[in-house]
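Changelog-adjacent note: as of this version, every example in the card shows the full chain rather than a window. The one below runs 285 residues end to end.
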Amino acid sequence: MAFDIVARREDERYILKILFNIDTFRASSAIELIRVSKITESVPVVLGERTGNGPLERGVVYYRHTLPIMNLDTFQDYVDGERPYIFSGPGGYYVSIDGQRMKEVRERLRYSIGYISNKIGVSRRSVSLYENGNAATIEIFRKIEEVLKEDLKRRIDLREAMEGVSIPDPEAPEDELVGEVIEILSMMGLHSEVVKRSPFDAISLETYSRMLFLGVVEDMSRAARAAAIKSICDVLLQTPLVVSERDTDKETIGGCPVIPVGLLRATRDQDDLIRTIEKRAAGHS
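Full-length structure tokens:
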């Protein structure tokens, strides 16, 4: 599966993938994790214990395939408000610097860029880059703070870090029935994204800023899958829907409203669809 846990606290949403060794995390899994997190406006995080080089350290954010990776202690610190400021990169660990703050302190102390470069043992250009927001190694960062005697750490905001990551291009559905359902929803004005390695087949965005988590089944024996879709929607406060290829008298499966594809074909518009979903959900609440 592309993810293992969906979590929410107030307006914070997280899509979590759990691994023991993060070296097993593949680009194909990252693509689907990014896709789901972007559509649901959630923060994707990979939680792991170690790499081939040893255990993940507390307070350090690692990155693979553009996604943040950390151990459980670091994640718990993050959601409790103690955001990390150290991240792993080529050649070691680095610290994100509040460049604007660094420049303000330096100018207040009337230190020149040349003075700072001599004190910490780097070029003037490096000092300028730090003041423009470039990260520094832990060793250099400690020297900067020793000279300026200020807290210059810029703590990592995972949501902000993911803003620059683009959502992968949508893929065409491989299943013919899923493709037909998405086409019907598109004619109603719903934009749908196909999702792989998930309990649901697609996520549709409807005009009232709600999301439909859509599972398409050939028969009604997939109650466990439907229950997973329902639990995800309960956490994210969104709407589940299962579309059945075959006609059925059941109005729900695994807690999800069910609409046979024949009835979906006859549904006029989004309002009609939402009314049908809400009526079926209310009848078995």
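Structural remarks: Residues 5-84+157-162 form one domain.
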